[in-house]
TrEMBL record:
Belongs to the binding-protein-dependent transport system permease family. CysTW subfamily. This is Sulfate transport system permease protein CysT. Keywords: Membrane, Sulfate transport, Transmembrane, Transmembrane helix, Transport. The gene is cysT. The complex is composed of two ATP-binding proteins (CysA), two transmembrane proteins (CysT and CysW) and a solute-binding protein (CysP). It comes from Gluconacetobacter aggeris. CDD domains: TM_PBP2.
């Protein structure tokens, strides 16, 4: 007599939890993305051809991706410096600073945009001082970069901080005992383990900045071909009841963002493999 024993899961209800998770992900991720891909093609390929010949769309994409890349690149050294100060320095009010770093996660983006526009405006505290030197921040692409830097900075800090905290101090002591200068010790001992989290933080900040809307529109000026971002152009098309055009622009923005993120992920894997190969050698 053959008995068929049913294999039991290690955790009670594991299969039900996995099924519920997959259904939930399908409803909130896969289904909207599928609708976004299919909607521009409902009336044929004419909508996509019209959007692909839209110079305003290309200008908005150039502003969005250019400002996002610049803001994330500037945030990398700033985030590394802040993480270093939180981990290695005994600053007064360190816990308050640590809490303020997460403020962009909790603060409504519209409040961020209004605050930055007031601060960097022609009559603002900082904007008035910069205006005397002939520098304009608000209502220019520089204002977009400033807003995106504020939004993306926490991703860099939170990606680097745990790795920096986990570095054993014996590594630095060994480098100093071997005669390395503080700069050489930082460049050859401390910086290599921090490169993967720096690249990961850059990718997260870049991805967040590409689709940022609320904190940008109040300080950008929103001038077509100069300071108009792609998410704002999607809203403009929706207000014109051009739903197919709006979804087509959103699809192109999504595909462009996925291509950029794929490249950044490949760079992160390459950096990690290089560090592993160097350590094995």
């Amino acid at each position: 007599m053959v008995f068929c024993l049913r294999r039991r899961d290690g955790l009670p209800g594991l299969s039900i939890s996995i099924a519920f998770t997959l259904v939930w992900i399908g409803l909130i991720v896969a289904l909207p993305l599928t609708a976004l891909v299919l909607r521009p093609w409902q009336d044929g390929g004419g909508v996509m051809l019209r959007v692909l010949h839209d110079a305003r769309m290309y200008a908005a994409l150039r502003v969005s991706f250019g400002c996002a890349a610049l803001a994330a690149a500037i945030d990398v050294p700033l985030g590394l410096l802040l993480a270093w100060a939180l981990v290695r320095a005994r600053l007064p009010g360190r816990r308050a600073i640590d809490a303020l770093i997460d403020l962009p996660f909790a603060l409504p983006t519209a409040v961020t945009g209004i605050t930055l526009a007031t601060l960097y405006g022609p009559t603002g505290w900082v904007g008035a001082l910069l205006a005397r030197a002939g520098i304009r921040v608000a209502y220019t692409p520089a204002g977009i970069v400033a807003a995106l830097m504020f939004v993306g900075l926490p991703f860099i800090v939170r990606a680097v901080e745990p790795v920096l905290r986990g570095l054993p101090p014996e590594l630095e002591e060994a480098g100093l005992l071997l005669g390395a200068s503080p700069l050489q010790n930082f460049r050859r001992v401390i910086l290599p383990p921090l490169l993967p989290p720096l690249v990961a933080g850059f990718s997260l900040a870049f991805a967040r900045c590409i689709g940022e809307y609320g904190s940008v529109i109040f300080i950008a000026g929103n001038q077509p071909f100069r300071s108009e971002i792609a998410p704002l152009l999607i809203v403009v098309r929706l207000q014109e009841y051009d739903y197919n055009g709006a979804t087509a622009i959103a699809l192109i923005l999504l595909m462009s963002a996925l291509a950029c993120m794929t490249g950044v992920a490949a760079l992160r894997r390459r950096v990690s493999r290089g560090l592993v190969a160097r350590g094995a050698a």
